[in-house]
Amino acid sequence: MIRLVGFLVFFIFVGVIGENEQCDTDNCHVKFAFASYYQDNMVLQRAPHKSVIWGYGKLDAKVTVLVMQDEYTTHVQLGTSNIPVWSVTLKPYNYIGGPHKIQAIQEHNGVNSTALISNIMFGDVWVCGGQSNMKFTVAMAFNASYELSLAPKYPNVRVMTVGDDRSNEPLHDFKNLEQPWSVPSKHSLTGDNVEWTYFSSLCWLYGRYLYDFLKVPIGLVSSNWGGTPIETWSSTDALKKCGLHLCDEPDFKLEMRNRTITKVPRSNSALWNAMIHPMLNMTIKGAIWYQGETNYDYHNAEYACSFPAMINDWRDKWLEGTRGQTDKKFPFGFVQISTTTESDRPNDGQYPVIRWRQTANYGYVPNEKMRNTFMAVAMDLADNDSPTGGIHPRDKQTVAARLLLGSMRVAYGRKDINPDGPLPQSAVHTPAGYVVLSYQDDQPLVVTKQQDFAIFDVEVCCDGECSMVVAPIASYSNRHVILDTRKCLEKGDSPKFIRYAWALTPCEYKKCSVYNTRGLPGPPFYIEVKN
Ligand SMILES: *[C@@H]1O[C@H](CO)[C@@H](O)[C@H](O)[C@H]1NC(C)=O
Ligand SMILES: *[C@@H]1O[C@H](CO)[C@@H](O)[C@H](O)[C@H]1NC(C)=O
Ligand SMILES: *[C@@H]1O[C@H](CO)[C@@H](O)[C@H](O)[C@H]1NC(C)=O
Ligand SMILES: *[C@@H]1O[C@H](CO)[C@@H](O)[C@H](O)[C@H]1NC(C)=O
């Protein structure tokens, strides 16, 4: 009898090992498990959205998922690339405390396998994407030790970092998670004290500020790669909309400040495939984005198309991937690129053009082409002494605070909050030779007459040749800035356009010409002059 029991135990043991066999190829992905990014410590999207949970199992097996008092059942089916997967859509859960455990049980040929994730919260999940300024870690930002000391006070802001990876085909799951879902601590926000690892300072600060405002758990997924153009983050569908095509570009050799060379992908869609596509089955609240520096000399002309196309394509694909559970117009916030030094980028005028194209040439968002978006202006945050180069300003706190304002209004419906800096409604040329810029900000203008920088300039045309000349501020009021353009008149023509802050580095730190009383800078603009 004892022998028989021993034999049975041995048999069951072998059976369980067999159940959990590890395979290299996707086809034998039979280990019963959650998908890679459903882990302990994660945040699942709260109500009114429904979270989607998925994983792997044996074909046709019954799978039961237990969440609080609720039970969800489904069967394992062949998914994309012939991988057996299961997926359940939960009912909407509000943040009603926690943490929770989520258990999944597979019944297959009389054998039950279980998978468990714990310390789960329901809250808002935000994806943070882009290039090096999004990757820039908490430890590299200003006041790093202060910021890190706050980490333990935010146990419900959870972080995860997707590892650098690329693929020629859309992947269904991550191959490389650099940082699993983690509770914030000095350690989990600094990696192993290596620069450019984790956690993203902007993503963290945005999440922390959002928590202070909402008091609900916030899940932050950081997925970005330094020195990468927008085309790498766009699907073929998005690229097609702008006349761009899938192309297999060789890696770009990026020279770092310390003279080392690092290779970064340039192949269209490569990072979309490996670092975004796998997440499409997870319900999210929205995304923030800090990218554009690389496109200053790479498909710059297409950016006014490629950026809105990528945003809308991400939305379409997330809607599809979560079977309608992620908003089809989910809020998308972004940073209008900051400044840099001429040693990092030539002052050839392309930097301000990218800032403009980030708004689809409107100068502000949201607009017709970029609905439900919000923007943080950052061209007044110059930091030439940044150890990793002026292209990486260390003040990410101001950027996050400006993004938060936009998020409150656009993502959280706070119509009483105006996240915008002053933008003129009209530019009128007076007979005396001045141009009057009229602003309709909800707050008075705060104007400083600048001497050192070409802040406002005017396009004048003589004999068919047009050029920009500096137009000094003659005077200003709460609502107007009056520019002296008499110099232009001497050239025998009327001013055609006024543009503002049209330079690599338009001003010193927080010293541009026009702000409102909330300290929000007027964004760069380009406006036609009425004569
Ligand atoms: C397997 O799980 C199901 C449902 O959770 C349960 O009814 C059944 O008794 C379990 N079987 C075994 C062998 O534990
Ligand atoms: C240069 O910087 C890169 C990125 O920060 C780092 O990986 C590398 O180790 C540095 N090299 C030297 C020689 O300091
Ligand atoms: C994930 O989303 C993709 C794209 O919509 C879809 O093809 C796939 O079936 C989804 N996977 C699961 C497990 O639901
Ligand atoms: C850093 O901390 C100091 C002192 O609290 C504060 O004055 C400063 O604004 C902080 N810097 C940023 C960028 O937040």
Key features?
binds 2-acetamido-2-deoxy-beta-D-glucopyranose; alpha+beta; Sialate O-acetylesterase domain-containing protein; eleven-stranded mixed β-sheet; SGNH_hydro_sf; Rossmann fold; 20% helix; 3 domains; disordered N terminus; 531 residues; Immunoglobulin-like; SASA; four-stranded antiparallel β-sheet; 27 strands; elongated
Describe what you observe in this structure:
By secondary structure, the protein is of the alpha+beta class. It folds into three domains: 2-118, Immunoglobulin-like; 121-410, Rossmann fold (3-Layer(aba) Sandwich), CATH 3.40.50.1110; 424-528. It has helices at 2-19, 132-135, 144-150, 186-190, 201-214, 236-240, 270-276, 303-321, 350-357, 396-410, 486-490, and strands at 33-34, 43-45, 52-56, 62-67, 70-75, 77-78, 84-89, 100-108, 111-130, 157-162, 177-182, 218-224, 252-255, 261-264, 286-290, 332-335, 373-376, 424-429, 434-439, 445-447, 456-462, 465-470, 473-476, 480-484, 495-500, 514-516, 525-528. Strands 2, 4, 5, 8, 9, 10, 11, 12, 15, 16 and 17 form an eleven-stranded mixed beta sheet that branches. Helix 5 (201-214) packs across helix 10. The longest helix is centred in the middle third of the chain and has 19 residues, at 303-321. It starts with a helix and ends with a strand. Residues 1-29 have low confidence and may be disordered. The structure holds 2-acetamido-2-deoxy-beta-D-glucopyranose (4 copies). Residues 64, 105, 107, 112 line the site of one 2-acetamido-2-deoxy-beta-D-glucopyranose. One 2-acetamido-2-deoxy-beta-D-glucopyranose (NAG) binds next to loops.
